[in-house]
Structure formats: C-alpha cells, structure tokens
C-alpha cells in the first residue's frame, strides 16, 4: 500500500533561512505565506520601505507590490508584528495605518531626526510584543534616493544606508533574523544611469549583511 500524499505544509522545514532577491515587492508574499505555515514561533516582519504597500487590492489585483503587506499583516491577525520603517510616501498618515490595521510604523523623518533613538525604539518595540525572530523585507526605496535611485519609485528624505545596516546587525544580535530579501532594485538594462552602480552595490551590501546577521557570520 502506498503512503498518503503529503500536504505542502507537511514538508516545509521551519529551520530553512530564506534569502530572496526581487523583483517588485510582491515577491515577498509567497515567502511570508510559506513562513506562516511552517513556523510556530512568534516571528515578525521588519519592512524598510518608502511606501506602505497596505492596499487590500489594487486595480482589482489582490496580490501585487502595493498589497502584499496588507495580506502579510492579515497572516498575523493584525497583532502588531508588521513593522515598517522609512515610510514617507503615503496618502494616509501614520495614525491611520496604525489605528486601522494594527501595524507599527517608524516614519523616515523620525529615523533621520533621531537615528540612535529610533533604532532603540524599533528593537524595544519588537521585544515588547514578544517577537522571537524577524524576516527582513528590504525595499531599496526605503533608502534615500541619493544612495539608491535605480528603482521604480525613488523617494527623497529616506533612510541612510548606515542606519539600515545598523538595524540589520541589531536585529540579528538582539532579536534574531530568520532570513530576508532585497526588493525593487531596477537598473535599466540598456543605458545605465550614473546611479545604477551605486544602487546595485548598496543592495549587495544590504543582502550580504542580512545573510551574515541571520547566519551569525
């Protein structure tokens, strides 16, 4: 007699550390969806991003770059485990998103004005909600366009690279990273603008730092 077929969730290894290169930010959705089925700990998402990506649907599309965070937050039952940093391009203010969807946001202005205090605040918040690990979903446009303009929607007044790198290291050391990604890196393939090289180089630094912090290197 043959064995009963396994469901997808039965074969997933919760100890696998996913590292993903995007793509638009919807590429994060299948990753966090799989993590929600495989992991039993109280994991969270930290999302550097200029935008909230918190629409329920966009132009009739349920899962896309502008909606994935909404659906990831639903996986958490809106319990505060979606943490967004670097937010600044939004049709609604922070109070709207936090009060209606239960997310926690650290807007770019706050992070730029009080860099050390805001880093401490992110870590303190994650500890306060009992987060045991973090998936770091890093949209390159969370970083200021001065350092990363080869992306679909570069935005001014964003996060500085050293702040993001410090955040990655502290998440790994003080909470624990379970994996991460780098998203929305989009250098043109034909005529390369002056900013393309610096954007891709910075993305590589972020990606390496995320892997190193996750694996304890």
- Strand composition percent: 15-25%
Largest sheet: 6 strands, parallel
CATH architectural label:
3-Layer(aba) Sandwich
Spatially, the strands of the biggest sheet line up as 1-6-5-2-3-4
| CATH class value | Alpha Beta
Question: Any idea what the shape is?
Answer: globular
Mean pLDDT: 92
Rg (C-alpha, Å): 17 Å
Count of strand segments: 6
C-alpha end-to-end distance: 47 Å
Q: How many domains in all? A: 1
Q: Any low-confidence stretches, pLDDT <50, length ≥5?
A: 1-11
Examine the coordinates and then state which fold CATH places here, giving the name of the CATH topology: Arginase, Chain A
Give a short overview:
The protein has 217 residues and is α/β, with parallel strands linked by helices. It is built from eight helices and six strands, in the order αβαβαβαβααβαβα. The protein has helices at residues 8-11, 28-38, 68-75, 94-101, 108-113, 115-128, 161-174, 194-215, and strands spanning 19-21, 43-48, 82-87, 104-107, 133-139, 177-183.
């Amino acid at each position: 007699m043959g064995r009963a077929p396994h469901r997808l969730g039965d074969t997933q290894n919760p100890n696998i550390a996913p590292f993903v290169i995007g793509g638009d930010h919807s590429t994060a959705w299948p990753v966090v969806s799989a993590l929600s089925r495989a992991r039993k700990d109280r994991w969270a998402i930290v999302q550097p991003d200029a935008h909230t990506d918190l629409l329920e649907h966009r132009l009739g599309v349920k899962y896309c770059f502008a909606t994935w965070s909404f659906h990831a937050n639903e996986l958490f039952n809106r319990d505060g485990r979606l943490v967004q940093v670097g937010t600044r391009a939004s049709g609604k203010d922070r109070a709207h998103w936090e009060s209606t969807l239960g997310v926690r946001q650290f807007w770019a202005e706050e992070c730029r004005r009080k860099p050390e205090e805001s880093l401490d605040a992110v870590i303190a918040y994650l500890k306060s909600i009992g987060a045991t690990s973090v998936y770091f979903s890093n949209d390159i446009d969370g970083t200021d366009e001065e350092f990363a303009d080869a992306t679909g929607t570069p935005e001014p007044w964003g996060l500085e690279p050293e702040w993001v790198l410090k955040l990655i290291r502290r998440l790994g050391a003080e909470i624990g990273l379970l994996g991460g990604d780098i998203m929305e890196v989009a250098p043109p393939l034909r005529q390369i603008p002056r900013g393309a090289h610096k954007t891709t180089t910075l993305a590589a630094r972020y990606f390496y730092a995320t892997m190193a912090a996750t694996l304890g290197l």
